[in-house]
Amino acid sequence: MLAFAHLSGMPSQEHISLLPFRTARVADGIRCANRVFRKLLERTCGKAVLRAYSGHLYRFRLPSYTSRVNTNPDPRQEQDTLQSASLSPEPIAAPVGRWRVFAFAAAGVLLAMLFVGTRTARAAWQEIAQLLSLHGKPEPASANVLSEHEIEGLDGMPPQSQAELLLERSINHYRGANDQIAARVESWRGKIKLDDRLNNLFMTGLNSDDLRVRAAAIEVDIASRNLEKTSATVDRLEQDARFGEQGPRANALWDIGLLGSRGIEPERAAQIILASIHDSNVNVRYWAVEALSYLGTDDSISPLLAVFHDDASPMIRERAACGLAQSGMLSEKQRRTTVPRLLEFAEDPALDPETRKWVYQALRDITGQSLPHDPAAWRNWYNSNDASWNPVTHDSM
Fold it and tell me: What does the buried/exposed string (b/e) look like for 333-365 if buried means 16 or more CB atoms within 10 Å of the residue's CB?
């Protein structure tokens, strides 16, 4: 698959951030990482008692004793306090016949309880296995709402910590996170920096399948770059974007693209960026194409298609394909409009094999269809669907 959102050349490294998860106390003092085990408790209620053992998953025992609340902080180290009492000081002899009847009856009851408990446990585990599977629709772990406690604590945090927390919450689609970012981002300007942690969150947000999360990441980047979202900033950047040395020019093009995506003179931003997409310097062209894809306007689509088909550099052609298919700020509906031209590219015998491969990858990313690298197959699919197809998204899986 194309590295559609990799921004090589930026002063950053891409890492995987492992985000902490919460635990919640449920019945009998057992702590669970998610609601799956709560379901297990409900399914086995009255038939078996859930018991944790260090180094193992959960197993079942018959409810011979009343379960007590576990006071040990680690539920895997549960220790039962079991009490037993002998109520008969002298054993009472029972007739042999009666003893055998009693023994058989007790064994039958025990086997029946084991059978019922095993069936219940198996059914409960099957439900757990289904929930824990890597397949199927997303399974919520908890209510994704920014808590009042977190909101109240934000004012006591430095801007850097505010940005980190809220961008992480935005990435995880917490309701209220983007509202808080919008309300606070101006106060962060010049006070936050893309250190390792915030840069990792920024890159994760920029690669999100949700454009609003990408927008939140862009807002954080603009604040870290100490850019005012004004026309005066575009005025200041334009000189470098058109005539600066390679480094300042690339930075100015990127900044103008981000500002345009946030509604700061997008038409003017497009004209400044378009002046550089055919520059003789490959690095300037690279950042012009990146900036154009993040500008995300309708007018950026045709130039990106032309660069994808015609640019002399494979790297630039690939970046244009990425911007059209997956990265940047084009919406799903905007990307759909490129399919007819991409089908023409697939049918073009003059196209080199590498670019043709990127055409098919772009078609798959835009449409969600897995068809062979055959222009006739794609054309037949498109004609038979009459453009009434829906792409595969996380909500439709």
Answer: ebbbbbbebbbebbeeeebeeebbebbbbbbbb
Q: Terminal CA-to-CA distance of the chain, rounded, Å?
A: 19
CA distance 169 to 146: 8
Q: What is the pTM of this model?
A: 0.68
- For residue 31, the cross-strand partners are 25
CA distance linking residue 192 with residue 183, whole number of Å: 16
Residue 60 pairs in a beta bridge with 50
Whole-angstrom Cα distance, residue 325 to residue 332?
9
pLDDT of res. 147: 86
Each residue of 105-152: pLDDT tens digit?
Answer: 666 666 666 565 666 767 766 766 666 677 777 777 788 899 888 899
Which residues, in sequence order, are bridge partners of residue 175? Answer: 145
Angle, alpha carbons 58-63-64 (nearest 5°)? 125
Question: What tens digit of pLDDT does each residue of 287-296 get?
Answer: 999 999 999 9
Cβ neighbours of residue 268 closer than 8 Å, sequence gap 6 or more: 234, 260
